[in-house]
Amino acid sequence: MADQRIRVGFIGLNPDSHWAATAHLPALQSLSDKFTIVGVANSSQESAQRTASALGLPHAFADAEALVNSPDIDLVVVTVKVPHHLQLVTAALNAGKHVYCEWPLGNGLAEARELAKLAKEKGVVAVAGTQARAALEIEHLSQLVKDGFVGKVLSTTLIGSGGNWAGETIDDYYYLFDNRNGANMQTIPLAHTFAAMRDVLGEFGSLDARFISQFDAVTVTDTGETRPKTVPDQILVQGTLASGAALSVHYRGGVSRGTNLLWEINGTEGDIQVTGGLGHAQMIQLTVKGAKGAQKELELLMPAEDDYQGWPESATVRNVARMYTRLYQDIETGSRLAPNFEDAVSLHEIIDTIEQSASQHES
């Protein structure tokens, strides 16, 4: 019987470092009955060959154009920096390939809209990697709220630490501190977490935001340089959900000695608390607790242990694997389970609203 696995080509994959290697590669390896990685294109032929040799891949493409046009590739996975997404995803879509693009989809709302329009025209499966939406804990949390655990939602409060975006970084991550690159605290950890929040609590209503920078420069520790920092390190958002519930959000740069992800949902019948070790809901193990009625203390409200069976132990890898599983179903059956480019546009619109609001408060 012919091999029916989806053939994957990566644009931006090193065998032992960065996000593609630590998340995508093990996720796909756990789904080897559905996917097979057959090729890679990196910044140079030499880099692609090193990756192909290390991973035993049959193809090391000279460039991205050769990869997207190869008849041996069904799905193009784009895991490079955000400023390159528009060009590379456009090429893949024009070649008629299915696409999995890391979030943010585009460097700003206009690029995201352009890519979503093209994906719709081409009729392919085009997925944006907002994998917190596929987390077991988020699906479980959504069901708890839907089933009325908290009753009517009155308010929700979110505090998160970005990990980056304080006063220090390394050279490899400095691009995150340059506003021109579209890879900052509001577009990465906050947006990923907002994607999950929206699945649980519904659409956002009116939002008012303020951006604050406590650091105007950043120390690059591995080079000893001090460079400009043009993105905020404190993000404040207040407003409402479409349901009328109150919303309060604070994202901060760096990490805290306290709780680095604290999300509470308060309702007429009960309360839920979600915690984690970093403000990136898409890549950490989430802990869900709650109490309702006469209960005075929170208790664990995690998914059943059986729900985790068969999935990777690492939350980072598990969430990405669950995204790929949705994508596989969409390709094979025509379903619409994975977050697509139109979903990405609506998330970009929320971030754009926040940025526009914050700009109005600048002195």
Descriptive key words:
10 helices; single chain; Dihydrodipicolinate Reductase, domain 2; six-stranded parallel β-sheet; alpha/beta; eight-stranded mixed β-sheet
Give an account of the 3D structure.
- With 363 residues, the chain is of the alpha/beta class.
- It folds into 2 domains: 6-131 and 317-340, Rossmann fold; 133-303 and 347-360, Dihydrodipicolinate Reductase, domain 2, CATH 3.30.360.
- Helices cover 34% and strands 26% of the residues.
- It has 10 helices and 17 strands.
- The protein has helices at residues 18-29, 45-55, 64-68, 85-94, 109-122, 136-146, 186-201, 305-308, 315-333, 341-360; strands spanning 6-11, 35-41, 59-60, 75-78, 98-102, 126-129, 153-161, 168-169, 204-212, 217-220, 225-228, 234-241, 246-252, 261-267, 270-276, 287-292, 299-300.
- The strands form 3 sheets. It has an 8-stranded mixed beta sheet. A 6-stranded parallel beta sheet has the order 3-2-1-4-5-6, with helices on both faces.
- Strand 5 (98-102), helix 5 (109-122) and strand 6 (126-129) form a beta-alpha-beta unit.
- Helix 6 (136-146) packs parallel to helix 7.
- The longest helix is centred in the C-terminal third of the chain and has 20 residues, at 341-360.
- The radius of gyration is 21 Å and the shape is globular.
- The chain starts with 5 loop residues before the first strand and ends with a helix.
- This is 1,5-anhydro-D-fructose reductase.
- Residues 138-276 form the Gal80p-like C-terminal domain.
- Pfam families: Gal80p_C-like, GFO_IDH_MocA.
- Keywords: Oxidoreductase.
- InterPro entries: Gal80p-like_C (IPR055080), Gfo/Idh/MocA-like_OxRdtase_N (IPR000683), Gfo/Idh/MocA_oxidoreduct (IPR051317), NAD(P)-bd_dom_sf (IPR036291).
